[in-house]
Amino acid sequence: METRARTAEETRERILSAACEAIAEVGFEKIRMKMVAERAGVSTALLHYHFDTREKLFTEAMTHSFATSAGLEDDTTTAPAAVVLARIVHSLLPTDPELRQDWRLWQELWVRSLRDEKTRLFAVDLYAQLHAWVGGAIEQGVASGAFRSADVDRLSTLVLALSDGYGIRLMLGDPTVNVDDVLAAIWRPVAEELGLPPEFPGI
């Protein structure tokens, strides 16, 4: 029984990973269930067993992408609070191929949110989770005494806003910005608020 459940979960994960890759590559509007099934190495019938509509597959793929990129390393409980927060900031930006794929998914989500109310509500909920992720790291740092007391809600909103703005420019290949400068620009106001050194920590 456990083996069957584990196999089903592994199949589901494979499908979601394939969906993330396909959506990022060609866009949601061009995605067909057969395309995802072939990429995942499963039958179309099995894909429909797990995800009966394209819309459900899209939202589950976004959730999967978020959960993967928002997974903190195992040593976050022992890492300095500033390093934990810096890792989160780094992961909010398209700083490697995997995160660039995540950003393509977010861009698809933004476009769909303009046309579909359910997608818009889903996007708002994902942003709330991002906000809680950033805020949780700040709260832990304040509680441990590593950070100066701050308005956590406002600072979390600022981090997300700066990450979105700079992230778009990085995705566009804007020659006037680079990853190091972006990390520094986001970190400076955060560090000032929390009483930390202005240099982005080594992560």
UniProtKB/TrEMBL annotation:
It comes from the Bacteria. This is TetR/AcrR family transcriptional regulator. Residues 32-51 bind DNA. InterPro entries: BetI_C (IPR039538), Homeodomain-like_sf (IPR009057), HTH-type_TetR-like_transc_reg (IPR050109), HTH_TetR (IPR001647), Tet_transcr_reg_TetR-rel_C_sf (IPR036271). Keywords: DNA-binding, Repressor, Transcription, Transcription regulation. Residues 9-69 form the HTH tetR-type domain.
